[in-house]
Amino acid sequence: MADQPRFKIVDNAAVTETYANKLIAASFDGGAVVLTLGATRFVPESGADTPKEGVLPPVFVTQRLALSPGGAMEVANALNNMLKTIGEMQQQQQLKAAAKNLS
Fold first, then answer.
1. How confident is the model over 59-86, as pLDDT tens digits?
2. Domain residue ranges of the chain, discontinuous segments joined by +
């Protein structure tokens, strides 16, 4: 793969960070890939309430992200590279644990 040009990145401190732990939906309308992200939250009625076992907390929409097809491909490639690295790290940890158990 040819080296891509490096763009000057200008960080805008006014841009907020959004947390998500669920992908609610992903769609493509022919022009944009739209991701709807959310976060599970337990909101107690009173301070003594705790989550009930077996009852899933609601997922609140936290962000909708619309990407051009090219931008979506860049995100997909970056995520695939990260997942590959995580997999390799986990494999190394398993090998170290197995070697430790043998000694």
1. 999 999 999 999 999 999 999 999 999 9
2. 18-45+52-67, 69-103
